[in-house]
Task: structure prediction
Amino acid sequence: MDVIVEAKRDGEPQMEEQWRNELAGHCNEYKGRSRVLIALGGNIGFEISKWRGRVYPCSWYALLNAVDSTLGAEASGMHTGRILQDTVSAFAFFGYCPYHGDAGLVKQAAKCKMGYERYGDILRRAKDSLAAGTRSA
Result:
């Protein structure tokens, strides 16, 4: 199975016409191969049900939290663990921190090297983004 990832920054919506063109182009180029499209970010304001089985919406926070939970299961000295930690650090650079519940807010703010107030804003965006991703999936 081939995986196509269409990534959008926060505030930039996914475009259904673009998905249609990408899936059709892949179908023409790679006849007979199965494919899915992961719509990363920007999944607000359209009906995903008609795309079920072909397009899978995902938020940046959902991706970060999946990387972070996988990191928790990996040994920190292993190559994979270091790659995952670098990925979490790259997210933190752009203001994204993993969500570990409200109780870990101060600890996570320190881990991500930012103030509590800024982290609180990011936490609210994360919760909203995760909730929106759950509703559209």
In short: The first helix runs from residue 16 to 29. The radius of gyration is 17 Å.
